[in-house]
Amino acid sequence: MSNATTLNTPTIRPEEAAHFGKLAADWWDPKGQSAMLHKLNPVRLAFVRAAIDAHFDTDPNGIKPLAGKRALDVGCGAGLLAEPLCRLGAAMTAVDAAAENIAAARAHAQGAGLAIDYRHGEVGALGLSGFDLVTSMEVIEHVADKAAFLRALAGTLGEGGLMVLSTPNRTPASRLLMVEGAERLGLVPRGTHHWDDFVTPLELHDLLAAQGLKMGNPKGIAWSPRKGLHLSDDLALNYIVTVTRD
């Protein structure tokens, strides 16, 4: 099988794209249907910033650690992560499966005065490559072919680049709290999560290794009444990892 054919293996589930496309109109409303993402985003950003500084040896106090670097966010939604990465100095590209999300993302970035290259479609079919930083947050659990999706992500990562992924863990706790609890309480839209599609850290490690990628030690994203969502050693609900070429 040729590399081009491999990278173009369809990974988007049309029903998933339609589900998230319906959320586009109020994606940027911190009290709307994507409220949980607004709470999650600062936690993910803290991890990403620390990973950038460690990997590229940048000043932790610097304002633009991604200056002169190209970054790609895959499964970008309406740009909650792409915009702060752009503000960190990156030449920013972002991809999503839902055309509605891309339209909302472009409009919001334009209003904020940010130059972000938003693309709609399959990441493996867009000819993207050579990025210093590739992020994909809460996406792999929604794709049809996880191996093909990671193969496509690997194809976008430049030499010496850094990838950061986050995803829910497949545990009894995540089923109880993220699927049954959060959706029933209206904290996330119904139908957002399918527990059987969640990926364990060991499974993700092996999927990445098959693409010649090395996974760092996972960090948990946990929740408590006192702290809310926060980085933790507890991987039971959700986790975030760095990825580099092996």
Shape: globular
CATH topology: Rossmann fold
Structural class given helices, strands, pairing? Answer: alpha/beta
Query: SSE string, helix = H, strand = E?
Result: HHHEHEHEEHEHHEEEE
Q: Using the 3D structure, state the CATH architecture.
A: 3-Layer(aba) Sandwich
From the N-terminal CA to the C-terminal CA, the straight-line distance is 23 Å
State the total count of DSSP E strands: 9
Rounded mean pLDDT is: 86
Number of domains: 1
As a percent range, the share of helical residues equals 25-40%
Catalytic activity: a 3-demethylubiquinol + S-adenosyl-L-methionine = a ubiquinol + S-adenosyl-L-homocysteine + H(+); a 3-(all-trans-polyprenyl)benzene-1,2-diol + S-adenosyl-L-methionine = a 2-methoxy-6-(all-trans-polyprenyl)phenol + S-adenosyl-L-homocysteine + H(+)
EC number: 2.1.1.222, 2.1.1.64
GO molecular function: methyltransferase activity
Pfam families: Methyltransf_23
Structure description:
With 246 residues, the protein is of the alpha/beta class. The protein has one domain: Vaccinia Virus protein VP39 (Rossmann fold). The chain is 36% helix and 23% strand. It has 8 helices and 9 strands. It has helices spanning 3-7, 14-21, 35-56, 82-87, 99-112, 146-156, 172-184, 201-209, and strands at residues 70-74, 91-96, 116-120, 131-137, 157-168, 213-215, 219-224, 228-232, 238-245. Strands 1, 2, 3, 4, 5, 6, 7, 8 and 9 form a 9-stranded mixed beta sheet that branches. The longest helix has 22 residues, at 35-56. The protein starts with a helix and ends with a strand. The relative contact order is 0.15. Mean pLDDT is 86; it is low at 1-7.
